[in-house]
Each structure stands twice: as C-alpha cells, then as structure tokens.
Amino acid sequence: MLKGFSIPISRRDLLKLAGVTAAGAVLSGSINTNDVEAAEKISGDSIKYANKKIPVLYSADVCVCGGGPAGTAAAVNAARKDVSVVLIERGVALGGLGVLGCVYPFMDTHAPNSDTPYVAELKQRLRKKGIEPFDGVTQQTWHNPETLALIHDEMCESSGVNILYQTVVVDSITSGGKISAVIVQTIAGLAAVKAKTFIDATGDAYLARCSGVDYERGYEKTGNNQPLSFRFEMGGIDTEKLYNYVAIELQEDWCKSKLPYFEIAEAMHRKQRYKLEELMARGVETGEITQDEAEYMQGYTIIGKNGVMSMNCPEIPVKFSATDPISYSKAVTFGRKMMRNIARYLIKHLPGFENAFISREAVMLGARESWRIKGKYYMVEDDYHNQSRFVDAVCRTAWFIDAHGEKVSEKLPKGGYYEIPYRALISDKVSNLIVAGRCISASFILQASMRIQPTCASIGEAAGIAAAFGIKNHVAANEIDWAKIPAHQRSYVTAG
Amino acid sequence: MLKNFLIPISRRDLLKLAGLTVAGSVLSSNNSVNAETVAPTQNFSINAENIPVLLRADVCVCGGGPAGTAAAVSAARNGLKVVLIEQGIVLGGLQTQGLVYPAMPTRITNSDTPYITDLNKRFAMHGVQVNWTDEPEYKNGGRAREYTPELLAFIYDELCADYKVDVLYETTLVGANVQGGKISEAIVHTVEGLRKVEAKIFIDATGDAALSRAAGVPSARGSDVTDRNQKMSFRFEMGGVEEMKVYKFFVKKLKDGWCESKPPEFEFAKSTNTEKFYYEGIQRGEVTKDDVAYIQAFTIVGKPGTLSMNCPEMSPYIYSSTNALDRSKAIQQGRIMIRRLANFFRKNIPGFKNAYISREASMLGVRESWRIKGKYCMTKDDYFNAQKFPDAVCRSAYPIDIHDESLKLTLLGKGEFYEVPFRSLITNEISNLMVAGRCISADFPAQAAIRIQPTCMSMGEATGIAAAYGLKKNIAVNEINWAAISESQRSYVSAK
Ligand SMILES: Cc1cc2nc3c(=O)[nH]c(=O)nc-3n(C[C@H](O)[C@H](O)[C@H](O)COP(=O)(O)OP(=O)(O)OC[C@H]3O[C@@H](n4cnc5c(N)ncnc54)[C@H](O)[C@@H]3O)c2cc1C
Ligand SMILES: Cc1cc2nc3c(=O)[nH]c(=O)nc-3n(C[C@H](O)[C@H](O)[C@H](O)COP(=O)(O)OP(=O)(O)OC[C@H]3O[C@@H](n4cnc5c(N)ncnc54)[C@H](O)[C@@H]3O)c2cc1C
User: Fold this and answer.
1) Ramachandran angles phi, psi of A94, nearest 5°
2) Nearest protein Cα to ligand 1, atom 30
3) Is residue A331 a contact partner of residue A343, using CB atoms and an 8 Å limit?
4) B132 close to B49: Cβ distance less than 8 angstroms
C-alpha cells in the first residue's frame, strides 16, 4: 500500500486507544468522538481533550486557521521565511469569500502604491495564467475564482504549506495566555494541531474568541451586524447586448471600463442614483420582486468565463444575523429564495439576460462583518478621516466606509489613505496569537473600510512575516515591534 | 432577534425526555453509566456540562445529503419536530456540493417511494420534467433530467420550509454524548462556538457514519480484499460548450456508440471506441494516465452549454477517503487534474474551444468511506440472489459499481431486483440511532450497489417514518420491526 504519510498503528496501540475511548464513554459529561480512526495516521503524539486522548495531526511552527485572502497570505509568507506551516480550512478551496463566497473582484484600495509584494505577485500569477486583472481604468483586480483557487494551491505547494482541507477549527487549548493547540474536526474525527504561533484568519475571530481574547460584534448603535449576502454567478448572458442596453441606451456611466470588464449596479441606499434602479423599482411595483430584493443589485463579468457574471446580491435584511447560528441558517434559505427571484426577474426583463441561468451559488454565506477582536490598538472612524499613519503600519488603504445601510462615507481626497498598525492584529490576552483579515481590532465603522480583499491579504502577509520573525528571534507574537523588523524583510514600511 | 424556531422546552417535556433516556438505558445492555466529575475546561470546550443547548427536537438528522434531507422531511411530515444539521450552506450533499449529476435510475419498476414521486411533482411545478429513478430500460444519456443542482437545492429548501424542518446550516457535527446506550445530544460546531442539540432520536446521514462512529458503533471501511476505499473524484462543471459539435465529434467522427441520445440530453465517456483518443493525449503528454482513468461528462439540460464532468478520479493507491490528510492532498491533486483535463478537452474536442471551468465541487466526491456494522449487514450474495426482506425499505437493480483500478459492472437479470432491509439501518449498540444513505450496514460490494441517490433517499424516507412510529408506540428505534408498521404508513412494502 502506498500511503505517504500514514504510519500504521500497531495492534497494541489500537487497543490502548480503544481502551481510552471506552473509558471516555463512561465518564459523564465527556464526549465520544471517532478519534481511533484518525489516530492511525499520526506520529503517535496525542493530547488530552474533554477527558480523552486525541491524536496530534501536526506539530508546526505556525498554524493558520482559515484560508481566506488573509489566511492564505499569512501561510504562504510564513512558509517562505522557512518556518513550518499548517493551514486549516473547512472548505475544499482557498480564497475564503473570494472563492467560496463568490465575492468578486478585489476592490480598489483607492490608495496609491498600496500593493504589497504578495498582492502584486497574485496579480502577476493571474496574468501568467491568461487572466488579465487590470481593466485599463480602475485598480480593481478582476480575476477568475477557479484560477485563483489553483494559484493559492500552487503557492502553498511551492512554499511548503501543509493544507488541511475539510477541517474545522472547533476549540483551542489555552493556558497562561498561550495557545498550545487547536482542536479540529476532520473527516476522521477530532484531532489537534500544535504550533508555536497561531494566526486567526477565520474572518469570525473564532480562534481568538475561544482563547480568551476580548471581542465585539455588530454596530454599537443598533446591535446589528453588517448585512449578509448570498452571492451567485449567472451564465448564458449576452454581455454585448447587456452592454449596449445599459451603457449605450440607458447611458449609465457608472462602469468606467469596457467589455470584457463590465459591471452593472444599483444601490438604493446610496446617494448615487443608478439607471438600473428604475428597472428594479418596476419589479417591486408589479410584485415580481420584493423591496429587499430590489435594494441592491450588482453584477461583474468574470474574466475567462464568457457570458458569466458574478452577482453581488441578494443582500439579506439585517434582521438576519451573522453571529447567531440559527438566524444565520435562516438567512441561507431566505437568501436562496431572494436569489431565485432576482435571477428570474433579470432573465425576464434585462436585455442580455434572456437565456441566462444560475450557474453557481456561493458555498459560503457572505458575512461582511461578524466578530472583531479588541487588540492592543483599536482602530476607529477617525483613523480614516485623519488619514492616520503608524510606525508599525503593515499596509495602507483608502476604500471608503461601506457599512451597508448604516453609513457610507465620502471617499478620501485623491492620494489620501490611512495605515493599519500591527498592534491592531495582536492582543494583551494571548501571547502567541496574531489575528488577520476582516476580524482585526477595529470599530464597526472602520472595519467597513479595511475589510476589502487586497487589504486583508496585505494584513495576512504581514502576519505571516511577523510570525516567522518572532519564532526565529524568540519574541512572542504580541511583543513584536513591526517597526524593528529590518525594512527589507517587511512587506510594508510606513510612509510616516 | 430572529429565533423563531427555538421553542423553549417546558419542564414537563424535559422530564418526559429524561424519562425516555432512562428507558433507553434499560433497553441497552452495554455501557453502564458511571458518574464521575469532569474537570472544567475552556469556554468553548467540548466538556458537555459547559456547552449551551442550541435546539431541542424529537429528531436530529445529521447530514443533509439525499438521505438526510429525505429523512428530515419524512419525519417532519409524520408530525415530528426535526432539526437537520448540515455543514455546508446547501442541502443535497454530493448531489449539489459534490456536483454529482444526474441521479442514476434504479433500473427497476415500482422502486419510486412516495418521497421520490413527490419530488418529481415538485420539479414539474417548477416547469421541469424529471424522472428520477425507476427506469427499467436504462440508456446512456437520455431520459428526463431537466433539473440543475441549483434548482434541486432550492426545492430542498422549499420542502424543509413546507414541512417546518429546522435546518442548521454551516454547522458541523463533532461529537455525541452517549449515556446508557443512547445518544442524549449531538455536539456541533457553529459560528458561535460549540453547541448541543438534544433529541429523542438521531439519524446519521453524514455519508461518513460520523455520528455512529462518534457514538461508538463499530464500522468497516474499504474492501476486504484490497483494503482500499473506492476511488474519490473531484467533480466540476464546464460552461461555454457547443454541445452539438461535441456530439458530432464523438458520435459521427469517433463512431462512439456509448450515448444513445442527442443533445440536449447527451453524455460522453471513455469507452472502447474512444480509448485511443485519450491514449493519444497521454502520448502527447497533455494528460496523465490517472487523469483519464475514468472520463464521463453529462449535459445539464437546465444550463445550456454546460457539462457536468464525472471526473477526475484520484488514484486509490495514494488517496484514501478515510484518511484526513489524504483527503486534503486529494483535493490539491484533483484541482491540478481538473486543469489538465479542461485544457485537453479545449484543445482536442471541437465544441470545447471556448469552454471554461464554470465551477468546482465544494465537497470531494466520496463514493465510500466508513460503513456501520448494524443489525444486518447486506452482502454481495444478497445482490446476486436478488434477496428480498420482510422489513425491506426499498428496492433497486442498480449494479455493483466499484470504482477502483478497473471498473466492472455485473447486471442482474431483466426484472430482477434486491431489497434493502430496515435492519441494515439500525445498530445493536445505540437504541435511538438510525443510519441512512451510503454508510449503512453493507459489505463493500453491496454498498457499491445501494449507494445511488434514489436508493439513499428511500432509505432516508423510511427512517423518518420509523422515527415517528417509534415515538408513538414507545419502541426504541433499534427494536422496530418495519414489517409490523401498517402497510399504509410504510413508504415501501416488500415484494416478498
Ligand atoms: C457580499 C460581500 C461582498 C463583498 N464585496 C467585496 C468586493 O467586491 N471586493 C473586495 O475586495 N471585498 C469585498 N468584500 C469583503 C471581502 O470579501 C472580505 O472582507 C474578505 O474576504 C475577508 O477576508 P478574510 O481572509 O479575513 O476572511 P474570509 O474571506 O471570510 O475567509 C475566512 C476563511 O476561514 C475559513 N474558516 C472560518 N471559520 C473556520 C473554522 N472554524 N475552521 C476552519 N476554517 C474556517 C472560511 O471557510 C474561509 O475560507 C465583500 C464581502 C461580502 C460579504
Ligand atoms: C464521483 C461520484 C459520482 C457519483 N455518481 C452518481 C450518479 O451518477 N448517480 C447517482 O445516483 N449516484 C451517484 N453517486 C453516488 C451518490 O451521489 C451518493 O452515494 C449519495 O449522494 C449518498 O447520499 P448520502 O445522503 O448518503 O451522503 P452524501 O451525499 O455524502 O451527503 C452527506 C451530507 O452530510 C454532510 N455532512 C457530512 N459530515 C458532516 C458533519 N460532521 N456535520 C454536518 N454535516 C455533515 C455533508 O456535507 C453532506 O451534505 C456518485 C458518487 C460520487 C462520489
């Protein structure tokens, strides 16, 4: 049998393990899990969790939880600094919302020279695969989700990241302000992954929350999270016909670029008035769609998928919460119904959509915001308006504050931007944890600006570099001074 | 807050529930309850005492594939309060997340159980002609299958809403609390953290027997002969395909007689007449032998220009479906194989010139992983003897279909069929557990026959009926004699 990394377990070990399971079952309050199966694959190391032994799948320098734009960047960049890395992802593709959630394209940071080396590399790799990300006008990154997933796999492969797919982080073992292991559910049962430094890139601050880091959720004024969306793709669209109708007949000048880079949009909550608003409003009058379905509709052509558009809708009413599992489940069903209605309506009434069909639904609900940690530095709205700079800045961005329904800010003046400090990625509570992506330490309003994919990727990149630096120099992750890392090793150096 | 399906349990109900638990423990002879206190662990910890209860129900179904969805709907139709736990955000399991399309027919008349007849009707209500299952004269390619995986997902949501099944999406089963031979609660991972779901009866429809294994039910995996699991596939869809050109190429040019129908209902596969075509691709270095070990593609009638690819298959020597690390590696390998195949098709099949990968599966294609050892184990002799059982829950004539090194199908004689007994869905160990779908108690070859979607659905349907019957008559589900349920209530009555 050819099984690279499976180390056969001896009969004796198996019995020992089985014994443990049986004992576990006897204890009241302990949980049975199917760990005997998983244990066969392992080096023999195990830890005690919920009163029973569970196998350790990996012992690594760095363990990254969540493989979205932030987590993938973190894993690849840590591995490139020669530390061993495990990346845990519950889906079967890397890219998080960008791949699993059908979120497309990467938004423009609106900040000059904001591309950190990793982000620049991503664009270059897309180009090499025949996907030109530059539309000639804007700084949005148009891509192709399937190609992006492949690129992520390739980058992990070449840098030596061990990916654990279809694996869910469910808990951590933390004591004395230090995480020693995360507990994961694999297809074979519960297991543990040990590491020196952990990076929480789950988007939901899951690891931080289960390790005792302070956190908050939603808007302090309303208690609501940002609205969820259930994104999807439609195929069979005659994009030329659509372009002629929207750009020429309706004279909508919202989209600055030309085919194959084309976007249609309509957002009733914004100040901007879009030409397609009328079409959607008519649907509400005739009863074909609801007001909720008409509120927000947006679609982008996907490069390399002729006739396919990525739909940035439906936006699910805010009474559904991104932080309540029951409400969240209801949002899926509700959103799927909205999606059908919107698709049916567009097929019937939008020129170019006559033969269109739903070609793909997201496999992850679009949570813009759920939980955010409270770290060493807490970013606030003023950091945006004041264009704050930080000595320990890890990236810059100027994407406007886009808190759907609550607040949409003006753009910063041309050339303006703010920076994100490393201290927003770490906390006082857990020494070996770095948080990256949309769940860093920021207020609800500020997060609505920093959450876009290129910014999340740059944050992840810095987290990966810092994790490796800390391990090599024996500095706890939450004691690292990003400004003290030699400038050539940093992915971003503050402009001061 | 929107928690309309959290119905607080009354003190009386709680006592009733507790009473049932005690009764259950009396029925079961193993597992004595030994009360011992457990050291408190972390906040999120799996330590049963600390985990909040999320929901309570009569029945908790784990896994929302074809089997689990049928089980949940059927139980709810029979008046029970049902929670359905699904780790993805869509029901249908391999049908939707795995892009397994279309459902294979049972190849025997009168195999449609009421749930399936109803599903056909639901499709008709959406203006779509579908004949799910009982086609005796199976022809490759052609039959009524106008549905798309996305429509199926929508219909499943509709069914669950109509019958008030509470679906918990993005929720992963991680363990079970077993007391006195009964599962008292399932431990699940949600975005919020670990939670408990309490129920009187549990149905394991995870495909991987995850709940049963967690509850200590013995299981088997792979072939007794080779020790290997069936091959896994990573399925995908391609859009932008000109189907008539593809048809002409295979049927007219390569003289392939594989498919007996024309577009829009068309399929191609690696067959005797087309083997050379693939062999030459290997010679030219465009694909590997593994890439083309098995090739099959179906048009999706509801998605014009889109083909569902039943490939690639990953080598069973390297990747096992019961090893967590293997599954992760198989995903990465599969994604590379998908690219090579897509390029090969584009280059060599007229009609694929402008084709693109329109989506990849969000769940690996696992044909077989773990199978429980239940009260009755179906064997290949049952298949060859066309065995009937007084407690049969469904019938099928689908052949033993083992994907390994090579594929060999042995068909039953015309009009012959076998049945699946209820006893294959229950265990000796756990009194309140039923298992449905591809992980029921069957040997490796028998599982390879009973694993198709309609059969999995019929099994699920039967467990829902049995759950209601058991609760009403106060009989533990693993003591139920299906034959004793009145014929009018049964979804299937044996032909015996
Ligand atoms: C509807 C919508 C539209 C948007 N539009 C745009 C846009 O046009 N352009 C743009 O640039 N940005 C957009 N954004 C924002 C952007 O997509 C996200 O903020 C960004 O993807 C966040 O990256 P992340 O890595 O922090 O988290 P995510 O992308 O959420 O990734 C988190 C990853 O962690 C995994 N994970 C989570 N929990 C666990 C666990 N317990 N165990 C294992 N794995 C886990 C998830 O599966 C996922 O892969 C949009 C967001 C939404 C919701
Ligand atoms: C490549 C391939 C091709 C096939 N071709 C065909 C075909 O052409 N026609 C046909 O009829 N059949 C085909 N089959 C077989 C058929 O699709 C499956 O056997 C059938 O879907 C099994 O149904 P199920 O409900 O038992 O499990 P699944 O479909 O596997 O569903 C299991 C569900 O449980 C969920 N789940 C698993 N673990 C957990 C957990 N811990 N917590 C929460 N949820 C969980 C999963 O997300 C999934 O939704 C094929 C299978 C494969 C792999």
Assistant:
1) -90, 155
2) A203
3) no
4) no
Q: Is B291 in the pocket of ligand 2 (CB under 6 A)?
A: no
Give the angle A169-A174-A178 at the CA atoms, nearest 5°.
115
B89 vs A332: CB contact, 8 Å cut-off?
yes
Per the listing, tokens 């990003």 go with: A482
Nearest CA to ligand 2 atom 48: B93
pLDDT beyond 80 at B9: no
Which of B36, B37, B170 has its CB closest to that of A365? B170
Please state, in angstroms and rounded to a whole number, the distance separating the CA atoms of residues B201 and B39: 29
CB B360 within 8 Å of CB A93: yes
Residue B266 has pLDDT above 70, yes or no: yes
B320 and A186 within 8 Å at the Cβ level: the answer is no
Mean pLDDT of A135-139: 94
pLDDT tops 80 at residue B479 = yes
Position A25 confidence tier, pLDDT thresholds 50, 70, 90: very low
3-class state of residue B74 by DSSP: helix
Residue B142: pLDDT band (50, 70, 90) is low
pTM equals 0.92
Q: Which residues of A457-474 are buried (b: 16+ CB within 10 A; e: fewer)?
A: bbbbbbbbbbbbbbbeee
Chain B residue with CA closest to A145: the answer is B359
Any residues with CB less than 8 A from the CB of A428 and at least 6 apart, and which?
A: A376, A478
User: In a 10 Å sphere around its CB, with 0-12 CB exposed, 13-18 middle and 19+ buried, how is residue A116 labelled?
Assistant: buried
* Interchain proximity B178–A150, CB inside 8 Å: no
Residue identifier of the C-alpha nearest atom 20 of ligand 1:
A453
For residue B100, report the distance from its CA to the centre of ligand 2, in Å: 8
What is the percent of chain A with per-residue pLDDT over 70, rounded to a whole number?
91
Take residue B291 and report the two structure tokens written for it.
């890439």
Q: Which residues have C-beta atoms less than 6 Å from ligand 1?
A: A 65-71, 88-91, 96-98, 100, 103, 106-107, 168-169, 201-204, 206, 229, 231, 312, 364, 366-368, 437-438, 451-453, 456
Residues 6+ positions from A219 with CB-CB distance below 8 Å? A225, A226, A403, A406, A444, A445
Residue A37 has pLDDT above 80, yes or no: no
Phi, psi of B332 (to 5 degrees): -65, -45
Strand partners, A418: A397
Collapse the DSSP code of B195 into the 3-class scheme (helix H, G, I; strand E, B; otherwise coil) and give the result.
strand
- Could you tell me which residues are beta bridge partners of residue B409? B401
Assess whether pLDDT exceeds 90 at residue B36: no
Burial class (CB in 10 A: 0-12, 13-18, 19+), A348: exposed
Which two three-digit tokens encode residue B440?
A: 């029921």
A325-349 and A276-286 are packed helices; what angle lies between their axes, rounded to 10 degrees? 100
CB-CB: which of B160, B189, B303 is closest to A359? B303
pLDDT in tens, A288-317: 999 999 999 999 999 999 999 999 999 999
State residue B131's pLDDT score.
78
Cα separations in angstroms, A252 against A76, A208, A234, A249: 41, 45, 21, 8
Ligand nearest to the CA of A459: 1
Per residue in B199-217, pLDDT (tens digit) is 999 999 999 999 999 999 9
Do A355 and B304 count as a contact with CB atoms less than 8 A apart?
Answer: yes
The alpha-carbon radius of gyration of chain A (Å, integer) is 23
Most B CBs within 10 A among A7, A17, A21, A31, hence the mutation to make, goes to A31
Q: Rounded distance, CA A52 to CA A247, Å?
A: 64
Q: Which ligand is nearest to the CA of B197?
A: 2
CA separation for the pair A327, A316 (Å, rounded): 11
- Going by pLDDT thresholds of 50, 70 and 90, the confidence category of residue A50 is confident
